[in-house]
Amino acid sequence: MIALLLYRTVADHLLPWAMPFAIRLLARGLNVPELLVHSSGNYVVAQVTAFEHSIGRSLCPFRLARLLRAWWRGWH
After folding, report:
1. How far does Cα 52 stand from its chain's mean position?
2. Which residue has the higher pLDDT, 7 or 16?
3. Residue 1 pLDDT grade (very low, low, confident, very high; cuts 50, 70, 90)
4. What pLDDT, on a 0 to 100 scale, did the predictor assign at position 63?
5. CB neighbours (10 Å) of residue 59?
6. Residue 23 and residue 37 in contact, taking contact as beta carbons nearer than 8 Å
7. What is the maximum alpha-carbon separation in the chain?
8. If DSSP states are collapsed to H, E and C, what string results for 5-72?
9. Taking the model in full, what pTM does it have?
């Protein structure tokens, strides 16, 4: 019960402060404006989502295991 209270406190109070701080540190480290870091992050998320919906579905481990089992049965 105490751990749940601690985790919730951290999530509610520390995370909203930590994300802008991390973006600011990354922007300073890369020597680029903060808006560029934020917008490039959004671009990466969009690209990953597009990959997951197109090619990533065919790489599903359950689907690949099913295809491998079918191939193995046909080979014997």
Report:
1. 11
2. 16
3. low
4. 80
5. 10
6. yes
7. 60
8. HHHHHHHHHCHHHHHHHHHHHHHHHHCCCHHHHHHHHHHHHHHHHHHHHHCHHHHCHHHHHHHHHHHH
9. 0.50
> Amino acid identity, residue 52?
E
Q: What are the structural domain ranges in the chain?
A: 1-31, 34-76
Mean pLDDT of 57-61: 73
Cα–Cα distance, 25 to 14 (Å, whole number): 16
d(CA 6, CA 12): 10
Element (H, E) at 76: none
> What would the two tokens of residue 36 be?
């560029």
pLDDT tens, position by position, 12-55: 788 788 888 988 998 999 898 988 888 888 888 888 888 877 77
